[in-house]
Amino acid sequence: MRYSQMFLPTVREVPSDAEVISHQLMIRAGMIRKLTSGIYSVLPLGYRTVKKVEEIIRQEMDAAGAQEVYLPAVQPAELWQESGRWSFYGKELLRFKDRHMRECCLGPTHEEVITDLVRNEVKTYRQLPRNLYQIQTKFRDEVRPRFGVMRCREFDMKDAYSFDADEKGADLSYEKMFKAYTRIFSRIGLTFRPVEADSGNIGGAYSHEFMVLADTGEDALAFCSGCHYAANLEKAEIAKPGKVDPDPAQFKPLESIHTPDVRTIEEVSAFLGVTPQDIVKTLVFAADGKPVAVLIRGDEEVNEAKLRNYLGADSVELATDDIVLEVTNSPKGFAGAIGIKADVYADYSLMNRINVVMGANREDYHVKNANLGRDFTVKAFADLRIIKESDSCPRCGKPVRFARGIEVGHVFKLGTKYSKAMKATFLDRDGKEKFMIMGCYGIGVGRTVAAAIEQQHDDQGILWPMTIAPFHVMVVPVNVNDAKIAAAGETLYRELEEAGVEVLLDDRDERAGVKFNDADLIGIPVRVTIGPKSLAAGNVEMRIRRTGETRTIPVGEAATVIRDIVMGELKALNDPNNGHPR
Ligand SMILES: [Zn+2]
After folding, report:
1. DSSP secondary structure letter of residue 435
2. What spacing in Å lies between the alpha carbon of 390 and ligand 1's midpoint?
3. What's the rounded Cα separation, in Å, for the pair 311 and 292?
4. What is the torsional sign of CA 569, 575, 577, 582?
């Protein structure tokens, strides 16, 4: 491709409305342009990378036995009403009526459509398993679209759906997708981790998110320094401490203390001269509307997702002032476990603790030396808090580390949530009617491109991995008005193209500095400079974008040497053994 012919509008200034680096660089490198809030046009340079990402996805999905389909973007409301999501989904679902006043939506995801398709065609166990996927436009009407294509409203996604006859088959389908995803992100050249994710409380369900590690990532994840355990912070488990039965002889007498207007942990610890660790926080939640109390150490925070999963509730939220008053007989700030009118659950952090400070369930009062067994009871101890970097791994006990990441893929064992709601059944071997067991598997295509940039860039621009670089090589004749230089550029361009290398020839009549800046910005992995001095000596100069390493190569050998470098990198990334989280 000739730069002079290419629709490649680069921008020198950082766009003022772009908060994150990938958004800035995609605008500046002429990859995307904003049409309206959260909706982007993809320009030729950007689309070359998008198509490469899609191709890697297709190859690995096909290799894993999935088959490509193409499902409609417009979906009828009836299917969503059947699954129960029409009322549940909220304003993210863009709804509209057609000319016959039939309610429709633009698909934010395709579980309903695919389940409808498969239930109509698959009748017996002999037709299972099935895994169907597509790469297609989704629409989610985000309240606050931001970060460019990272959180936009219209985007391309690869989504796959598996249907199995039994749990064993469903687990195998999941494992195949897990491996395919590991291959996909390895081939794209990303450093990533599959992390255990919260899957809500669908029975028999579990899920992993594939996170590209980047300091700018919006998700926080915890991973073990000693083993493969990794989880997002919502899900990350905390090891259960050993239980020691406390000796009641050590229990001090319960004291009630007047603490006028002293409510927060900071106020209580200052007033009583104790540390937050000495205080037990009592939080009242409404779990599906029913009040429950959670006891947790003063310096810890309750993880509401863990609480929701533990209770098997659909929703958990902090109780209103009215409910707090009802179960504790006091306004907020003085809740405690003694005499509370709700089921009490305690976080592991309180195991083995004696003589604690807590609210007295009486306005302006706290108690000292409260003890489990003597003064109050709990229904159970559980892992209910948000993990901290000082916690230890639930699997091996080694210290946990935190990192930031960008979610680019998600594999999810759905179980029978949709097949039950939409009656997707089949006849098994014994002629019995059963529900299909489903899995769903997504990859955000644009998000993957943006995540690659977030992870791999420098002050000058993008550092593309070879497999998804829009071009492999950029040939830069520094002065196209010099006939010899221009001719050498044309020759190398032709030779490389003939050798199967994708080349961008910068044939613009521009200063060398402008050309070099653009080359660095758009991040083509190999740049070849043809300048008057080196050419007079019979050489060209090659520079590796990522390392800055330069090499002088005789003109006659240039095409071969450069082809070998490009093909070597492609081969290393596409190698069948390259399939491990890094
Ligand atoms: Zn571990």
Report:
1. E
2. 13
3. 10
4. positive
Q: Rounded CA gap, 219 and 517, in Å? A: 32
Ligand 1 centroid to 142 CA: how many Å?
36
Q: How far is the CA of 397 from the centre of ligand 1 (A)?
A: 6
- Which structure tokens are listed for 23? 């958004």
Higher pLDDT, 576 or 155: 155
Could you tell me the distance, in angstroms and rounded to a whole number, from the CA of residue 394 to the centre of ligand 1? 7
Q: Which band of pLDDT confidence, cut at 50, 70 and 90, is reported for residue 89?
A: confident
420 phi, psi to nearest 5 deg: -70, -50
Q: β-pairing, 32-36 with 400-415?
A: unpaired
Tokens of 28: 């500046």
State how far the Cα of 288 lies from the Cα of 307, in Å rounded to an integer: 12
> For domain 43-237+401-454, is the CATH number 3.40.50.720?
no
Q: How do residues 94-151 score in pLDDT, each as one tens digit?
A: 999 999 999 999 999 999 999 999 999 999 999 999 999 999 999 999 998 988 888 8
Kindly compute the dihedral angle of the four CA atoms of residues 183, 184, 186, 190, in this order, to the nearest 10 degrees.
-160
Torsion of Cα atoms, 570 then 572 then 575 then 580, to 10°: -120
Domain(s) labelled CATH 3.90.960.10 in the chain stretch across 248-382
Ligand 1 center from residue 580 Cα (angstroms): 18
- Whole-number Å distance, alpha carbon 369 to ligand 1 midpoint, is 36
**Region(s) of the chain under CATH 3.40.50.800:** 471-574
Residue 313 Cα to ligand 1 midpoint, Å, equals 29
> What is the pLDDT at residue 232?
84
Hey, which residues does 34 pair with through a beta bridge?
40
pLDDT at 203: 54
- For CATH 3.30.930.10, the residue range(s) in the chain are 43-237+401-454
225 CA from centroid of ligand 1 (Å): 6
Q: Which of 155-159, 401-405, 574-578 has the lowest mean pLDDT?
A: 574-578
Backbone angles phi, psi at 235, to 5 degrees: -100, -30
Taking the C-alpha atoms of 543, 547, 551 and 557 in order, what is their torsion angle to the nearest 10 degrees?
Answer: -70
CB 550 within 8 Å of CB 538: no
User: How would CATH label the architecture of 471-574?
Assistant: 3-Layer(aba) Sandwich (3.40)
- DSSP secondary structure string, 283-327? EEEEETTEEEEEEEETT--B-HHHHHHHHT-S-EEEPPHHHHHHH
Residues 6+ apart with CB under 8 A from 249: none
Mean pLDDT of the chain: 94
The CA 223 to ligand 1 mean position distance, Å, reads 8
Give the Å distance between the CA of 214 and the centre of ligand 1.
21
CATH architecture of the domain 248-382 equals: Alpha-Beta Complex (3.90)
Average pLDDT over residues 197-208: 70
